[in-house]
Design goal:
The chain has about 240 residues and is mainly alpha-helical. The protein has 2 domains: about 15-120, no CATH class; about 155-230, no CATH class. About 65% of the residues lie in helices and about 0% in strands. It has a two-stranded antiparallel sheet.
């Protein structure tokens, strides 16, 4: 499927592409709330090919659609900012993505922090990357980056689990723990995350068999518990609380 400028929209699956189409149609009609509602669950999906978020790319395309039809993207910001200031998570995530798309890191970080504080895992993951790169006035704080990454990983957000696995293996920020690395990469790979599937193959070459066995068993026990609770597999697009 292509966007209004003829470029392909890349998403993690056909469901996301369908939602993109609905969002674009709504934005073309200047129905901003519907456009955002259909797009908000995709806002922080990472595109491994371009190292962008799906939301960033989606909203750039939607902006062009608005301009082509004589609208103003600022209308959307004006509509959502009051709700965001009142603590509406959907509005905060929308604004974070809007400003990220313009590389306005100060505002992107501001709204990402608000959403992350409400426990939204993709926002926690995004905030970890902001701390990692020191964006938007944040210090380059690898410890804070790890803490936020782990918060998202513990909510079964696969990209965060994969990154946590790498950090546990490297042992630069947190004490090296190969068993934890295997546990987290197994959880992420079990959700079908391509990067995690490849990362686990690499780990199996360098991590001891004993640590692999323990790490995989820990992951399996966790999956079984979550399955019994009706919470595994987690949704591909995490719901907002």
């Amino acid at each position: 499927m292509t966007g209004p400028d003829g470029q392909m929209i890349i998403g993690p699956g056909s469901w996301n592409r369908y939602e993109c189409l609905i969002a674009i149609a709504a934005r073309d009609a200047r129905d901003f709330p519907t456009a955002v509602r259909k797009g908000d669950l995709m806002l922080l999906w990472k595109n491994s090919d371009t190292q962008e978020t799906l939301g960033t790319r989606l909203y750039r395309q939607l902006d062009r659609a608005v301009v082509a039809h004589g609208g103003k993207q600022a209308d959307s910001v004006s509509a959502w900012k009051p709700a965001a200031e009142q603590g509406d998570l959907h509005a905060q995530v929308h604004l974070a993505s809007y400003y990220e798309g313009r590389q306005d890191w100060r505002n992107a970080v501001f709204w990402t922090r608000k959403a992350a504080a409400q426990g939204y895992a993709p926002a926690q993951y995004a905030l970890a990357t902001h701390f990692h790169f020191g964006r938007g006035g944040l210090p380059k704080d690898l410890n804070a980056a790890f803490d936020w990454m782990l918060k998202a990983a513990k909510q079964d957000y696969a990209p965060a689990q994969n990154n946590a696995a790498i950090l546990y293996y490297l042992g630069d920020i947190t004490p090296k723990n190969d068993r934890q690395a295997i546990t987290y990469v197994t959880l992420a790979a079990s959700q079908g995350l391509p990067e995690a599937i490849e990362q686990k193959k690499e780990f199996l070459k360098v991590i001891s068999a004993d640590d692999v066995i323990v790490g995989e068993q820990t992951a399996q026990d966790y999956i079984e518990r979550r399955t019994a609770e009706g919470r595994w597999p987690p949704p591909a697009n995490p719901d907002m609380p």
